[in-house]
Amino acid sequence: MPAAKRSTSKHQPKGLTILHEDRDIIVVEKPCGLLTIGTDRDKSRTVHTILNEYVRKGDPRSRNRVYIVHRLDRETSGLLVLAKSETAKMHLQEHWQDNDKRYLAVVHGRLAEKSGTISSYLAENSAFTVYSTNAPVLGKLSHTQYAVLKEARGFSLLEIRLLTGRKHQIRVHLSEKGHPVVGDRKYGKANDANGTLALHARSLSFTHPVSGKRLTFETRIPDYFIRLVGNIESPVAALGGVNEPTGSDLKE
């Protein structure tokens, strides 16, 4: 899988790296700490606002804008694709189950099963905390596929493929398995001294909404991960081919 390269655009919006841009889509690498889009409770600067300013090129009267296709948690870094039209957005979302999204995560401890799929019904309580439930009427069936790539220093590096895309899915599934993501203050260890969430959307493969061409993007491994587990030689390829999807609400 070829590594993504920066856009040849002379202007890069502050706080984001554009990996690809054409008249229909923009693919960016989001840093940890940045929201994808604002919420009723948080109106801070987001990927959405940064890219709206970028496509309007400083003209507040411009009708240009970007459309959210999917999301990453604020603390999660990595690849996002946004659309430049409502038509492109709808096409990408309608065919999202055909995409292939891979993550890297560093978790606490060593997993007894070195590969597998974690499945549960995920629900959210009034405190906005996601959890597994045995009641299908309360939650959405969710599947997280994983494979251990390296074990070192009390941590495990995982490659993860989402077969569904629920809110906080990866973080909840790994925490409930007894191996929370390093730096996860919400679902992880209360005494975790690591201040950065070790979860990164590393690769994304999808079909262009207009040209029909299959596009694949891959980012470099975050330095933070290397500091946790040491050098990583060939970290992505453990989970085989494309997704066998079972539904998605486009929130990872």
Please write out the topology.
Layout: E1 17-21, E2 25-30, H1 47-56, E3 67-68, E4 77-83, H2 86-94, E5 100-108, E6 115-124, E7 130-133, E8 140-152, E9 155-162, H3 169-176, E10 199-207, E11 214-218, H4 223-229
Parallel strand pairs: 4-10
Antiparallel strand pairs: 1-2, 2-4, 3-4, 5-9, 5-10, 6-7, 6-8, 8-9, 10-11
**Count of individual helical segments:** 4
**CATH topology term:** Pseudouridine synthase
Q: CATH homologous superfamily?
A: Pseudouridine synthase
Tell me the helix content: 10-25%
User: What is the first-to-last residue Cα distance?
Assistant: 22 Å
CATH class designation: Alpha Beta
Commentary on this structure:
Strands 1, 2, 3, 4, 5, 6, 7, 8, 9, 10 and 11 form an eleven-stranded mixed beta sheet that branches. This protein has four helices and eleven strands. It has one domain (17-229): Pseudouridine synthase. It has 252 residues and is α+β, with helices and mostly antiparallel strands. The model is unreliable at 242-252 (pLDDT under 50). 13% of the residues lie in helices and 31% in strands. Strand 3 and strand 4 form a beta hairpin. It has helices at residues 47-56, 86-94, 169-176, 223-229, and strands at 17-21, 25-30, 67-68, 77-83, 100-108, 115-124, 130-133, 140-152, 155-162, 199-207, 214-218.
